[in-house]
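re the bet — no i am not wrong, look at it urself. input seq straight from the record:
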Amino acid sequence: MTSTVLALVLFAGFTSPAAPPDRGPGGRGYSGASGELSVATPAVDAAKIRIDGRLDDAAWNQAALLHSFTQYQPVEGVPASQKTEVLVLVDKKAIYFAVRAFDTDARDIRATMSERDAFERSDDYVRFVLDTFNDRRRAYVFTVNPLGVQQDGIWNEGSGGGRRRFGPPIDSNPDFLWSSAARITDWGYAVEVRIPFKSLRFPKLEEQSWGLQVIRRIQRSGFEQSWAPLTGNVANRLAQSGELTGLKKLNPGLFMEINPVLTGKRIGAYDDAAGALVHDNPEGDFGMNMTYGITSNLTLDGTYNPDFSQVEADAGQIAVNERFALFFPEKRPFFLEGTEIFAMPKQIIYTRSIANPIGGAKLTGKLGSLNVGYLGAIDRSLSGGNDAVVNLLRVRRDVGGSSTVGAVYTDRTVTGDDYNRVAGADARLVFARRYTLTLLGAASRTRRPDGTDGPSTGALLSARLERAGRAFSYSGEIEDTDNNFRAGSGFFRRLGQTQVQSQVRYNWYGKRGSLLKRVGPSLEFKGYWDHDDFWAGRGVQEAEVQAGGSASFRNNITLWGNVTRSLFSYDAAAYEGLMVQVPDGSVEAFRPDQALFDGLYGATVFLWVNSWQRVRGNVRFSWKEVPIFDRSYGVAVEPGDSYSGNLSLNLYPTRSLLMEIGLRHTTINRKRDGSNYSTATIPRIRAQYQFSRSFFIRGIFEYSTQERGRLLDPSTGGLIVTCDDTSCTPRSISLDHNIHVEGLLTYEPSPGTVFYIGYTREMDDPERFGFRNARPTADGLFVKLSYRFRM
């Protein structure tokens, strides 16, 4: 009793909102602003801390104190706008953090009882970054909002070839088991966190050091502050972290997880003869996910009959004038673990290409300076043919302070006469702290059953140079694929082309407290050549120059805008097979007027507002002169005026209720006479009520109407057609009015331990927004129960 009272008295003293303390109640204090970034880790045998957000446990008396945060957004290097104090402590099984996040106006703290991983853009939060291998390339991220809701993931420097424009390179898809609690007080909010060593991977050493960073975001102002000072003039943010030293004899013990999954479903489809939905008999299924920690830094995962029925449906995308495949992100749990190891400058590995896995295994980890990842799976054929065997191998080695070199091999084999294999090597070289050079080379070998000339081989080359800078930054990139390159386990929108891109940005920053926080112009160029034309020195196929800029204002208001000029040019051979009907009923070859595409203009305006507690959102409007494409041939037919709008609102009527209202609309009119070619409108409403951190109900309604007319010759107005020996068919006409309704009830006390019951219904509407005669086309009811056993 006496020790507890003494701890409370000492703790109350060090948390006074006055000047920052020099030390914790029983340990040393570390001032981030003064460069005291090497923390001697305080350790106890058993912390006996109750994670409840009250910070009154006696063990905190032994913790080290991190204080004196500095701001890095929007003004860099100045004292933080709000005071933050962090305690850190380690025992034999876990690492602990406690935070007092002071706020001069606690009533304005933003916090929602949201779903896990869903609050980063809506709530205040504190983020802990643990670089357990201290390699300044990869780190665990644990984020907590003022109500204790969790968000976690992996910080992977250089992921995606450096193309992430907003925020740090964090993959929030992986979920770890850890404990958190928080509560809002009259002085701010308090946070407690416990992260078991079983949830982390780290070197097997007698004594080691971890990289450490703590970040706080104040959502209403957009201010961000960190314990270890950050600057945008250094390419690698993890290299600017502090350090936990003297971590001794860390041992996660036996690490094994078994996650059995039971599912049931009842599927219905519309039967024309019955004039109604006809349902199959209910079906049950069993699956299993397993994880085994071979060592503290090497993990084996396995899955049998994985079920992904809990995954929210992909939001609809407008595709009335698209020439290339649409990208959908990976959402399936088994494939999300260890994704940072498989990340590459180009998407040679795209796990969503494994569409219907029967089972799979994965080995990931780090051996010294070598990251290794292997994924094998059997992909059940969706067409009833032979199943595909998929093998993906990735290795990456750390070089110097921040650089890496790596290699990749993928193999997707259906039969001996049907396979695709890709081998490649890449490097990410960081020099002078702010410059990054990313290189990739790969070769593919593909054979198809109907191929008469044997396997085909192709090559990919890419290079990207970037300069990091808070004020001045630029990047330049070239990507080249020949006509035979194929990545059966990857994703590429365009092949057989050479692409060149470059971008230059400059930012001016306002003084602290000024109305204008930042303003910055930018200039961007994109050029696309046919692969053979580029190396032969012939002209560009497509090009775009974009001049734009953005301005950020006080109260979290940001305005973007740009103007563009583009051109399109195609070889006449690309149009072979496209014909035009002439008045006498005969047809003749279609010959485009390339002069129509030599100078197309456009403009876009985007406004993002995050000022109010209950309503936030953005609106975008654009007008562009665009080519109207033949989607199959991938060539321009005539120019059109495209008018697009996008409205997105997030509503927070209470801390537990979130509503998202979205509307996307695009209209394309033929430029020569103003007649309509296509119209697409997608309204979407998503509402979710969170009863607790673990229990929520969600509903989604989406209506997608997409109409596309016939392609016409801009010179004569005649129909563009393709013909066979007996008839001619007009090109490009479609009419779709689809309704999607989805409901889900979820109980998820921890990742992997879940109960779902959901219902989905698809309908076809004969008239655009008619509703009255909408006909159901399919529906499905599913339940899922799983439990994550950890040993």
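see?? Residues 2-14 form the longest helix (13 residues). told u. also The first strand starts at residue 29 and ends at 31. so pay up
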